[in-house]
Predict the 3D structure of the following.
Amino acid sequence: MNDEDGQYFYHPLENIEDVEIFYEATERKHLTKAISDERPYTYWTIELYDQENGIRGGGGLGVLAADTRRVAEEMEIPFVLITPFYPSETRQLIKDGKVEDEHKKVDYHDFGFRLIDRVNIKCCGNLCALEVIEKRFKNTRIVAITEPNFGELYSGMSGSDHRLYQEVALGFGGYSALKLLGLKPAIMQLNEVATFFAALARLDELVRNGMDFYEAVVYTRKHTLYTNHTLVQAAEAEFSYEQFERFVFPNLKSLAVKKWLEDKFTNGHIKLSSVTIEIAELRSGVSKLHARVANYKDVAGNKVKFKAITNGIDMRKWVMPEILDFYHREQIIDQYDAPTANFEIKLDLLTANRIRGFKVNGRRVLNEILTNYPDQNGKILEFNDDDFIFDFKRRFVDYKRPDLVFRDPVRLRNILEKRGAYYIIAGRVHAGDETMSKKLYKILEIVEKDDYLREHVHYLPNYDEKLAYGLSCGANAAINVPIVGLEACGTSWMKDVANLSFLISTHDGGVADGSINSYLNVSGANEEEELNMLYQRMEEAILADESNFDLEAIIKQQLTTFLPVVSGARMMKDYLDYLFPK
């Protein structure tokens, strides 16, 4: 809700006497206390990808978290991001065509974090001391939980003891950290189910402080948003009752909360999504398609409805300064980087010559970045201004189909050879993913056996934020071909569109927020037809780049459709409007 000054509100419910006021507020379908520095928007994530601040995540979830905090900073929203600080990182190398992991220790002191104090959680009959560290910005903070043996991001299997320990540490330890800092959450946004224990800690505190259990459940639900980033509940890992006895129950002081949690087990196991759905009344998916097709059910077996709030990006982080300045100067986007009311008309000022000039500057950015990213053979790449570059840059997982374009190596070579074009692959294989390691090895074998492909197809193994930015700025066409129905949103393609690259994509995830005519769509009744369409679209992109009319028409159409989609400011406004409806 907005008051006359435009502030957003919630109601704190400090004690049992506030219950009648609270219910009056909930009947009006809004919360009634202003977000402030002491009562911030809190954002919980098991993964943060923010290399500038010393935390390197594993993929899109972490990148999104970093972008959300920066957007909140730019919009002057009091915002606290709570996450683990992992004292070890994994980097990837290629040796003899195979992926090898390199482990590196990191120290939070090197990135401007300061130690606040320590908090304790109970696990396996022991007290576990966690360091609370913090880094403050203008109106936002990163609050992190860490300890020397915390391990790496996603270490162990998803249902392992160590993974549960990390999640419990984030939830119970992170909530204790907020209390230590004198902060009370206005809203708790739980990014994926790994953050469930933060809301559980809040529920437990309310009950042990004297609130009636059912009133505490209502209050917690009203102030908790569960944001789902995956599509299928069945694929989620489970934890056993015995694991909860060792890691979770010792941290609960309320018998009523423990009983409530015990009732959520089925045959001695629990899916965290089941209880996250129960503890959060507000639920969002990360694209229109995702919210429509996500297959999640509550404990009663009813399908859960998600509000569609498509992910966005921090334009100031990901868009080349020259392009961003053009968007601002011509009033295509406003001071918060959201599209203006008449941005479509303003896009007429984006001529083919301007697009080409921006891409030349982007090529220089890419070449500078590439000096630190040798390819699979240890070669440092450098491209000319008029070279045409396709890129595939995203997590190296099966449903994103990094191998699709290599199904017909002869046709791929012919397409590249006509223009002397290049194909760049960048993406990390998850540790322990033998299937994708083998697929990558097969791709590199195909490339190595062909004299032309060996010189024009390159894999950059140590994919990270900086390389992602360079490729978005300097490549000409982005390949995004997930199996339709499996991508929740994706944000890599958003950076490409904003940086004036051609988008060649299947109609999935956030791309499906637009029409199939707004980009170079890849579709077909089966994978063979999709592959044929992919090659056809690659040929069209090369030809369009040689035509001022086609280049201008395609790039303008992409921006007209997707600028409102990719805007992080639009995403944040959508969240606020959902959390605090007028």
Summary: The chain has 21 helices and 19 strands. Residues 25 and 31 are 6 Å apart (CA to CA). The domain at 315-566 is CATH 3.40.50.2000 (Rossmann fold).
